[in-house]
Design goal:
alpha/beta, Rossmann fold
């Protein structure tokens, strides 16, 4: 629990002060009673003493005052609620290295399957756009709530060319930033970038991520692949191929994520990749919201005051 107006909690200092004043008052009453009655005669003069009942109404009132002070401090608790409107851009690397088969059946097919599952798991109210990129980005699907085309588009991707993550981020940032407002409010946006290597061409992706952050757009990166992934590369003379190791570069992707203020993930197999996308789907499809408990505390305080008054009337024939 948190308090939106914590300075109001200083009012709790008054509780021990009230207790001390009450104790002093009770002591004064005992002194005054002793002035008129001998101690050995007290039991015969007042055989039916109220005992604990004398203090109960005040204890209830003190609890009520405490609740009122807490209400004044505006207590709130965080709860997870579905996101109603948002734009998510899925950026999938389709460079040549994505043909590596260290992630079954290969990196690109595993990525496409996980991205397609992600698109169908997030709340239906979220708009999802799809970008494939190698040396240049291609908008496969502009942001939409219609999921019917996404699986088909992702399944037809083919790996080739270099890696230009910076250009892909710039394109996705422009698309999100141009999303029409809803009820006069800017629609939040995020980017999910999946790649397996460093940027080999185009603008610096870290600088592009910093620009996205200034627009309140976070970039969640997923590094896919293992250190022993290989692809067949044509020989320079045009005859035959040779094997080339294509390890992922989680460090470069982590720099992009950090620059935008988002976490970075790694996935060495299809199962882990699916788990990452499932987590991202939940994270992007929900948000933390503070809900105030002020009314509950204030209502409880009023009920306690009413209870204290009823007890005092019943036992002593007077209000507190």
């Amino acid at each position: 629990m948190t308090f939106l107006r914590p300075l109001a909690l200083l009012g709790l200092v008054g509780i021990p002060v009230l207790i001390a004043l009450y104790a002093r008052h009770q002591a004064g009453r005992r002194v005054a009673a002793q002035a008129f009655t001998q101690p050995h005669m007290a039991d015969s003069v007042t055989p039916n003493r109220p005992g604990w009942r004398r203090h109960t109404p005040l204890v209830v009132v003190l609890v009520a005052i405490t609740a009122l002070v807490l209400a004044a401090a505006r207590p709130a608790h965080s709860t997870t609620v579905p996101v109603r409107h948002a734009t998510i851009m899925l950026l999938t690397d389709v460079s040549s290295s994505m043909a590596a088969k260290d992630v079954k059946p290969n990196r690109l097919k595993a990525a496409a399957h996980a991205a397609s599952t992600f698109a169908h798991k997030v709340p239906a109210s979220l708009s999802i756009g799809v970008v494939a990129f190698n040396q240049s980005p291609v908008m496969l699907q502009s942001p939409t709530t219609d999921r019917s085309q996404i699986r088909h588009l992702l399944s037809n991707l083919r790996p080739r060319g270099g890696t230009a993550a910076g250009r892909a981020i710039q394109l996705a940032t422009r698309v999100i930033n141009r999303t029409p407002k809803i009820n006069g409010q800017k629609v939040p946006g995020a980017i999910v970038l999946l790649s397996d290597g460093k940027t080999t061409i185009g603008p610096d992706p870290v600088a592009a991520a910093q620009t996205a952050k200034r627009l309140h757009i976070r970039i969640f990166t997923v590094a896919l692949g293992t250190s022993h992934g290989t692809i067949a590369v044509p020989n320079a003379n045009g005859q035959g191929t040779h094997t080339e190791v294509v390890p992922p570069s989680p460090q470069s992707l982590a720099q992009i994520a950090r620059a935008s203020g988002a976490p970075a993930y790694t996935a060495a197999n299809a199962a882990h990749l699916s788990a990452v996308y499932k987590h991202l789907g939940y994270q992007l499809g929900h948000r933390k919201e503070k809900r105030e408990l002020t009314a509950g505390f204030a209502g409880g305080a009023l009920l306690l005051v009413a209870l204290a008054s009823l007890l005092s009337l019943r036992w002593f024939g007077r209000l507190i």
